[in-house]
Structure formats: C-alpha cells, structure tokens
Write a structure and sequence with these properties.
80% of the residues lie in helices and 0% in strands. The chain is mainly α and 124 residues long. It has one domain (2-123).
C-alpha cells in the first residue's frame, strides 16, 4: 500500500511540473497560461507547486517501510490535506461558478480579482 502512496505522489509531482510547460490535451491550455504569465512567473509557480509534493515524496521515500514519526504524519496530512482542499475548491468554483470564469476567460483571473476586491474592501 505504501508503494501505491509513493507512486501517486510521483504522478502528482510529474503532472505539476509539466502542466504549465507541456500540452496535455484537455487538461491544460498552454497558450492561455502563457498569455497571462511570464516565463519567470511560470517557473516560480512550478517551483512552488512542485516543492510541496517533493517534500511529501521525500518524506515518504525516506521513511519507506519504517513507522512514520509523528512529525512526518503531521507534515504529510498538513501538506497533502492543504493541496486536496485547494483541488476541491477549484472543482467547486469550476462547477458552481463556471459562468464567472467564462465571462472573464479564466477562473484564475476571478480569484485574483476577488482577492484585490477583498483587500480594498477591508481597507475601507
């Protein structure tokens, strides 16, 4: 079972590293991503996104077939749980708020616009 856990992390890491750089059919839109971000921004996003899974993968491989210490369990649950909540949020936003993303062309733009609006509203 542990080898499946590690294999899934490898899959997620490879996908995260490739998603903004290599065309993956219906799973991504390279032209859209590059029209909204500079190569430097894409590289930074790739490093940040990949680092979380790389950490969990490292810990999983390091403690393979050894009982995980408590701090490793906490780290795995915290990192993978945070990523899972983010994925659920993206799914819910896409399913229930698809009309907003179609109006602006991307859900990413809505998230940043909402964040800017919230920060302006909190200052007033």
């Amino acid at each position: 079972m542990e080898i499946i856990f590690i294999a899934l992390q490898v899959f997620i890491l490879v996908f995260l590293l490739l998603q903004d750089w290599v065309p993956l059919g219906r799973l991504n839109d390279i032209a859209g991503v590059r029209s909204q971000n500079t190569p430097g921004q894409l590289a930074l996003a790739t490093l940040i996104n990949g680092s979380a899974i790389a950490i969990t993968l490292f810990l999983s491989v390091r403690f393979y077939q050894v009982p995980y210490p408590a701090w490793v369990k906490v780290a795995l649950v915290a990192i993978l749980g945070t990523l899972f909540v983010g994925e659920l949020r993206a799914l819910v936003d896409t399913v229930f708020f698809w009309h907003r993303s179609q109006a602006t062309g991307s859900l990413c733009c809505n998230v940043w616009q909402d964040a800017r609006f919230s920060s302006r509203a909190s200052r007033n």
